Amino acid sequence: MGKTIRQLSEEFKLSKQAINQRINSINGFRSKHTYKVKNHLEIDNQGVKMLANFGKQKRQDRQPNQQDKNDKNDKIDHILLKQLDVKDQQIANLQKALDQQQKLQIATVTENHRLKEHIRKLSGLLEPSSATQQQQSNDKDDTLSNSINAIHDNAENDKQDQSHIVDEKKKRIHKNKVNKSWWHFW
After folding, report:
1. What is the pLDDT along the chain (186 residues), one digit of tens a residue?
2. Which of 47, 69, 112, 123 could crosslink 43 through cysteines, CB 3.0-4.6 Å?
3. Which residues lie below 8 Å from residue 30, measured CB to CB, with a gap of 6+?
4. What is the DSSP string of 40-100?
5. Is the separation of the CB atoms in 34 and 42 below 8 Å?
6. 27: which DSSP letter?
């Protein structure tokens, strides 16, 4: 003898909708464990046991799924840890290269300072003789006087060009005035 959904809801202290959801969630439950008596749907004893153990069965079904999820998470964690190790090695290599570059830069700067000091010492030892200084001074004076003469010549040429242009403009103006006189039109 079976039980109705109302009787099961009172027995399990669940709503009728919750009992119907459990029935619908189990594959083939209606065809195997339910039958109709008058206007009521009744569930056989084996179906009642299945519905009573529904929560336990769900937990058991979830446990393998949870185990699979844990296994997947462990694999992902393992992969991520490997990637972190690789990145740590790359960072260490880059740090080592940076340290070497900094040491090389310091050595180069030190060498430059040493060479500059050496050049200063040598320039102090090699003072030009008075004859060489006199020749350099004369060369500078010649260069300066040549530059001044070139500038003076350019200035004179510019003045001549400007005066020639001014003369031509005056001639044109004079011609235009002559042609525009009033008696010229008669």
Report:
1. 678 888 888 888 888 898 888 888 888 888 888 888 888 888 888 888 888 887 766 555 555 666 777 788 888 988 999 999 999 999 999 999 999 999 999 999 999 999 999 998 888 877 655 555 566 666 666 666 666 666 766 667 666 666 666 666 666 655 555 555 555 555
2. 47
3. 23, 24
4. EEEE-HHHHHHHHTHHHHHHHHHHHHHHHHHHHHHHHHHHHHHHHHHHHHHHHHHHHHHHH
5. yes
6. T
